[in-house]
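A common beginner's mistake is to predict each chain separately and then try to dock the pieces by hand. The better habit, illustrated here, is to supply every component at once so that their relative placement is modeled jointly.
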Amino acid sequence: MKFVDEYRDPQAAAQYAEALARLVTRPWTLMEVCGGQTHAIVRFGIDQLLPPDLTLVHGPGCPVCVTPVELIDRAIAIAGQSGVIFCSFGDMLRVPGSRDSLLAAKANGGDVRIVYSPLDAVALARSNPERQVVFFAVGFETTAPANALAVHQAKEEGLTNFSLLVSHVLVPPAIEALLGAPGNQVQGFLAAGHVCTVMGWEEYGPLSEQHRVPIVVTGFEPLDILQGVYMVVRQLEEGRAEVENQYARNVRRAGNPAAVELIRRVFQVVPRQWRGVGEIPHSGLGLRPEYAAFDAQTRFAVADIRAVEDPDCQSGLVLQGRLKPHQCPSFGTRCTPEHPLGATMVSSEGACAAYYRYRPRQEEVQG
Amino acid sequence: MSGDFSLSCPVPPSRYGQVLMAHGGGGTLMARLLGEVFFPAFANPLLEEEHDGAVLTLPDGMRLAFSTDSYVVQPLFFPGGDIGSLAVNGTINDLSMCGARPLCLSAGFIIEEGLPVEILQRVVVSMGEAARIAGVAIATGDTKVVDRGKGDGVFINTAGIGLIEHSLHIAPRSVRPGDALLLSGDLGRHGIAIMAQRQGLEFETTIQSDCAPLCGPVQALLAGGIEVHCMRDLTRGGLASALVEIALKAGVQVEIAEAQLPVQEEVRGACEILGLDPLYVANEGRFAAFVPQTQAEAALEILRGHPHSAGACRIGQVREGRGQVILQSRIGVPRVVDRLSGEQLPRIC
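With all components supplied together, the output reads:
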């Protein structure tokens, strides 16, 4: 398949591995921010091609994983109301709230539907004027433009039965928080290519400069990731700390100005809770006052729902790259995709799910 | 950042008190439901083979295969087939995987009040046609009508019996280290065709379901003297789930290479967009066969001579092991293939 196969070429991958082995002179720790990259790394076995001195830790860039448990509980509360069609991207459905998941809400009679675009939810609102249609707007900067467009369209059309349950998060404040946290060990970052396709990469300049850390905007195919790693390591070895763009075939310095403009028109920057991490200032998007009528939290009066947190799950450490999934005592024993303790074990971009699915386990001898 | 990170995560209940859609997805949850609810209640040696159908030995030594399956697909009609042809071919294929020649089927209908008779007729005519093509009689049947809202148009159950006319023991336990693994054609078309219809996804060309009867290719293999060790049709859970089950049951290591798996360009594209792995997508006219290494080429030649397995190819081999499937990734690194917990869900971005 064009634009995919070229970036999965085994010979080229082996050449990158050799080049990296020649380049590395001492131990380095890199973080890939995005969960999509984490899955590619584990699915294709990219980390097994790296020299032993090079450690990749997995970052907080899985929107499903960092969606606060309260928001999931609120989503379930809304989905359980009669007359509501609750729309979500597929991989939010299995994520555990404090008691249940949206899948269970569906089994309990809630009208929960998987959609592929927020505009499909707007279309549902249009064709079901007697029902309230709610879209669970999660994601990083990547999904924000389409969600903004959905609200904008609903407002233009005067749809009064459409609303968004918003849990948008932003990448640069999360990197900032990780770098500023005591005991940080990450020396270089692979920034998420898709996020930068929308936002560009200018906002990473000050971060890189202030914290003296190389940041390379990186794609998602195996060769993209190997090249991104190579570029970060080369900077580290040469003592440089800059922002570079590996994913130039998709990412421009200024991003996609039309998409950015749309986000700014509909959303404003707000503080946001990150599941397993805590509140990070200026790290989320919320609806602007002009679009407040489309906020599902006020429309359905669920803003008071608070979730009971439990200290057993260590996904917070995993999301910050301080613990590898298999190092968690619950991994694969008390915590599995069927009975997850945390969202990182269920999401298709969650690091624990990636390790569980693609890595051999000692106890894998059954029947 | 306000203070240090707080580290907390809620703990959901450890057991499911109710059945979720994921319990029907062909993954780990379904395997558990079978293991915890059904097998203990029904326990008997026939069931414990965990094959696509049961193999019964009659007093005169003749062996019969017996299998059943229910069909609840939405939409009822999709490119390349419909619930009727699916219900006939599905059970024919389950019988074929036991190495049996399908003889006859039963058909049970649960019809929702309000279903247009014209729709029912189209479904039933399609079943008749599929049965004729496969040379199988629909010998008995039943209809029930339920209140509007208690069904989804029509649900169909079919059961079938087939005659086993050879002395092979075709089952996971017969798989041996050294066996070659063959695949009867490209992967993922049925699942993606259904998903595209259901979700209104449009691709440049319409993806056709691979729904087809597999009795022809299977009978050809057996008639050609191939010593088939095991066969499995790749329905729910796709190739990955089938291979994991067989590897576990046989106690061997099954090795496949990602780059050798045949997947149509449109299907690969759809999978890339939706974040699905073709390895887990359902097929309705594809099977995997384990045959002795020495007969692999002969088996492929036979399969390729049949229209429903013209795209047959060799995708892997069996080694000594402990019940694992190992996939050589596209960049040449081996990794474990596991079952999914439930259905594959499309990702966010």
